[in-house]
Specification:
The chain is of the alpha+beta class. The protein is built from eight helices and 20 strands. The structure holds adenosine-5'-diphosphate and magnesium ion.
Length: about 375
């Protein structure tokens, strides 16, 4: 007889966590498929660490249930949950050797000396630090120490790997390299992983699924492309980076578009949506990278596009791209990120901006 396998290896169901009057987590459901990397993303204080600590057994849910591989674990003590954990401050034992640091979790598992050696060496190889076993943590760089923390977490072959902002203590360049390494390693060993971060780039670049949280409430979940391109609300669109918001009044659907009216009276076309009624207030959200800009003197109209006019107020280079702030005729400001132009646009240049209706999504206000 074949039993239908639950696609969610880790499940949170209707989880509430209160600390006195503070609601840290407010009725959250999470499904984490086996072998996947799921990020919990949100600003400081939104409940990410609390969600992780409840899975680890370091906190008890006030309400709701948590399951690992179909088994309810609310009352399973911490040492009986087979979990690997990594935190921002590597938390290595400073006076122990790297070998003993990595072997730590194995000592309580009745593993023979030979097997212990084999597994520690294999873990050090997996994090690409073979040969450091006799050193002390202080003899390694921050990035290397974090890899040791990772080796210590995976050496026990955990059911789930929990990472709480593991890269935030590292400097930017190292962080990006470690991001890729973590991703490769996670895929190589196939361990189900929950990754907590407040950094949207980290979440978007690493995850199979992103869960966006605010004030303990789940705002949206989806693939990185879904949450970025189809943000569910203003908060999510804003948190994921470089949005422009244009307040509008919704009109009617017309040839696969929604006709909407901007505050300046202009008519715009937005992507279709069944969620909005005629006359309702809404916002267009459009990413700074999706706007096309050119000198006003070159203006020509392509049918079916949206246009705005304004003046460059600010410009800053970001390597291959330029970030512009453009003041529109109604004095509002648009953020535009574009590739470096052959003839650069200067401050106070008059420009027109083209918006493809397909990039103008409507969200509730
Ligand atoms: N042990 C605790 N006692 C009281 N309040 C707490 C405790 N742990 C967390 N909180 C509160 O719960 C909320 C969520 O915290 P946390 O899960 O640490 O958020 P995040 O990790 O997203 O920054 C915050 O308001 C925080 O102050
Ligand atoms: Mg935290």
């Amino acid at each position: 007889m074949t039993k239908e396998k639950d696609p969610a290896f880790v499940k949170y169901r209707r989880i509430v966590k209160r600390f006195g009057n503070v609601i840290a987590v407010d009725d959250v459901d999470i499904d984490i498929p086996e072998g996947s990397l799921v990020s919990l993303l949100g600003p400081s204080g939104c409940g990410k660490t609390t969600l992780l600590r409840m899975l680890a057994g370091l906190e008890t849910p006030t309400e709701g249930d948590i399951f690992i591989n179909g088994k309810r674990i609310n009352d399973v003590p911490i040492h009986k949950r087979n979990l690997g954990m990594i935190f921002q401050n590597y938390a290595l034992f400073p006076h122990k050797t790297i070998f003993d640091n990595v072997a730590f979790g194995l000592k309580y598992r009745g593993v023979s000396k030979e097997e212990m050696q084999e597994r520690v060496y294999k873990a050090l190889e997996l994090v690409r630090l073979p040969g450091v076993e006799n050193r002390k943590p202080s003899q390694l760089s921050g990035g290397q120490q974090q890899r040791i923390a990772l080796a210590r977490a995976i050496v026990i072959e955990p059911d789930v790997l929990l990472m709480d902002e593991p890269l935030s203590a590292l400097d930017e360049n190292l962080r990006e390299a470690m991001r890729r390494e973590l991703n490769n390693l996670q895929q190589e060993i196939g361990v189900t992983t929950i990754f907590v971060t407040h950094d949207q780039r980290e979440a978007l670049s690493m995850s199979d699924k992103v869960i966006v949280l605010k004030d303990g409430i789940k705002q949206q979940e989806g693939t990185p492309a879904e949450v970025y391109n189809h943000s569910a609300n203003h908060f999510v669109a804003d948190f994921l980076g470089h949005p422009n918001f244009l307040p509008v009044i919704v009109g009617e659907e017309q040839d696969d578009h929604m006709v909407v009216q901007l505050e300046n009276g202009k008519t715009f076309l937005a992507t279709p949506s069944t969620q909005f009624k005629r006359g309702e207030k809404a916002e267009i959200v459009v990413r700074a990278q999706k706007l096309k800009m050119a000198p006003r003197a070159e203006f020509h109209e392509d049918e079916g596009m949206n246009y705005l006019f304004g003046k460059v107020k600010d410009r800053s280079y970001m390597g291959g791209e330029v970030s512009y702030y453009v003041e529109l005729e109604d004095m509002s400001t648009l953020h535009i990120i574009s590739f470096v132009r052959r003839i650069p646009l200067e401050r106070n240049d008059e420009v027109f901006i083209k918006l493809n209706p397909a990039d103008c999504r409507l969200i509730k206000v």
